[in-house]
Structure formats: C-alpha cells, structure tokens
C-alpha cells in the first residue's frame, strides 16, 4: 500500500465535518435584546390607534435572523381586550431625525417587518418563527394598534437596560421625541439565530484553503497528487477468466489435451496419440 496523502484526505473530511455540523446541529436562538419586566400600571403608556410607542436599540456583531419578538403588556380591562390584536414592528432609523422611518405612503407604512399578535392576558405577548434578517445597525422596535385593537392596552414603563432612545406617535404623520424619555422604555425581548450565510463563508474558506495548497505545490515544482486508482482484485472469478483466442472448448466428458509447450517439457510423455 502506498503512502497516504493526508492533505488530500483532510480537505474532504473537513468539508464533510462542516456540513454535518450545520446539518445535524440546528442553530440555537440567542437573546438579542432582553429587558426586565416593567414596574406596573402606575407608570405606563397607553397604546391605541393614536398612541404608538417605539424604542431604539443598536445591534452589533454580524448578520442575524430575528426568530421571535415579544413585549410586556397589560390591560386596564383584560376581559374587554382579550382576543384583540395589536402590532409589533421593526423600523429602520431615520438618521436625519433619529426617529422611526414611518412613511404612510410606503408599503407597510415604511416598516421593515411587522407581525400581528393577540392579547390574552397580562405579561409577555409576541410571536416566533419570524426569520427577519437584520444587519448590524440601529433599529426601532414598536408597539402599534388600530381601531380594532385592544382599547385599554398599556405598556408599563421603566424596563432595563434602557434603550438608546424612545419615541411616541400621537396620531400625526410621524413619531416624535416630545414628552417621552428612556424612562418610558417598555419590556422587550428579541431572540435571533445566526444567518445561514455563515455556512457559505465556512465552505468558501475551505475551498480557498485547497486552492492555496495546490498553488504552493505548483510554485515548488511538486506535482499535484494523481487521483487514487482502485486496487486490483486479488483473483478473478471463473466467469471472468477468458479463454485464449483460437483454443476450442473441450467437449463434455473429453480428456483435456495439454498445450504444445507442456508436451516439449523434459520428463513428460507425449501423451496419448
């Protein structure tokens, strides 16, 4: 057996191991934003058709997919509001005003993402399985409602850690900082998973490593290893053995005749005539 080319084996094995790791082990969601529960209805902001609230957080790191979002909400009249829906949304930051990029003339009113959630009881309310892709940057996370939503929905204030900023919508055409501060922050939880593009980066790195090895071999004058050939079989079956050309097959029951070379060997008889 010839020497084993470990470099040739290591690249396919590393590639297979990387694929298995991403295939067998699903990406785990991590807490991207996690504020505390808020202080209670004594300090809270109302949410309704003309009262929306949003808070801004800056996300670092790499590309992520938001998997779930939830807010801590309460109601003055839980029985009346039970079963009614409100909206959790994400806006880009309008850098010129440092406010949510709300635009009633744009699709989805300028929201990057939004989902409807149903109030059922006081506490954390949200949605999961979202797959919202976010790059690093500043984003506004908003709680919004319309005329068909809960009529007595409240978002208690004082959640920590405090966001970068808080904005309120008062029924006009845009959000405003007027009358609110980071002390008005509501409870927010956002989970995310790594973007699948990280797998492509890993596989691309392995391919680049293989190319680099071949370039080094070419520069040093060493040839790239030839493809491995399958080992020959130790013996062929009788069905695979071929009879020499021109030699007839003996009739059934006939005594085999020695070949001419065998007849000329010393000490051997000429055989039956």
Overview of the structural elements:
This protein has 273 residues and is of the alpha+beta class. It has a domain at 30-197: Sandwich (Jelly Rolls), CATH 2.60.120. It is built from 4 helices and 13 strands. Strands 3, 5, 6, 7, 9, 11 and 12 form a 7-stranded antiparallel β-sheet that branches. Strand 5 (85-94) and strand 6 (99-100) form a beta hairpin. The longest helix has 23 residues, at 197-219. The protein is elongated. The model is unreliable at 4-9 and 20-25 (pLDDT under 50).
CATH fold name of the domain at 30-197 = Jelly Rolls
> What's the level 1 CATH class of the domain at 30-197?
Mainly Beta
- Secondary-structure element series: HEEEEHEEEEEEEEEHH
By helix and strand content, what is the structural category?
A: alpha+beta
| Overall radius of gyration | 38 Å
Largest sheet, strands/sense/barrel: 7 strands, antiparallel
Question: In CATH terms, what is the architecture of the domain at 30-197?
Answer: Sandwich
**Total beta-strand segments:** 13
What are the key terms here?
single chain, about 270 residues, alpha+beta, Jelly Rolls, seven-stranded antiparallel beta sheet, six-stranded antiparallel beta sheet, 4 helices, 13 strands
Task: Annotate the secondary structure layout.
Layout: H1 6-24, E1 30-34, E2 44-46, E3 52-59, E4 64-75, H2 78-81, E5 85-94, E6 99-100, E7 113-118, E8 123-134, E9 137-144, E10 153-156, E11 165-169, E12 175-176, E13 188-194, H3 197-219, H4 260-263
């Amino acid at each position: 057996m010839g020497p084993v080319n470990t470099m040739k084996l290591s690249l396919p094995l590393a590639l297979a191991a990387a694929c298995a790791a991403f295939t067998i082990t699903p990406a785990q969601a991590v807490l991207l934003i996690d504020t505390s529960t808020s202080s209670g209805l004594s300090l809270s902001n109302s949410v309704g058709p003309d009262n929306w609230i949003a808070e801004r957080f800056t996300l670092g790191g790499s590309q992520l997919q938001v998997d779930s979002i939830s807010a801590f909400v309460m109601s003055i009249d839980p029985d009346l509001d039970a079963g009614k829906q409100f909206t959790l949304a994400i806006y880009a930051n309008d850098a010129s005003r440092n406010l949510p990029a709300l635009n009633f003339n744009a699709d989805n009113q300028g929201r990057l993402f939004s989902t409807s959630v149903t109030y059922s009881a006081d506490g954390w309310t949200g949605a999961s399985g979202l797959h919202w892709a976010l790059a690093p940057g500043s984003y506004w996370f908003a709680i919004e409602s319309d005329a068909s939503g809960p009529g007595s929905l409240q978002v208690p204030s004082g959640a920590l850690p405090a966001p970068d900023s808080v904005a309120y919508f008062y029924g006009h055409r845009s959000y405003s900082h007027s009358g609110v501060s980071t002390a008005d922050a509501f409870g927010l939880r956002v989970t995310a998973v790594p973007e699948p593009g990280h797998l492509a980066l890993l596989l691309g790195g392995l391919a680049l490593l293989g190319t680099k090895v071949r370039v080094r071999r070419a520069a040093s004058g060493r040839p790239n290893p030839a493809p491995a050939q399958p080992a020959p079989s130790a013996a062929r079956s009788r069905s695979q053995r071929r009879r020499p050309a021109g030699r007839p097959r003996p009739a059934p029951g006939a005594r085999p005749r020695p070949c001419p070379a065998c007849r000329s060997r010393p000490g051997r008889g000429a055989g039956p005539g």
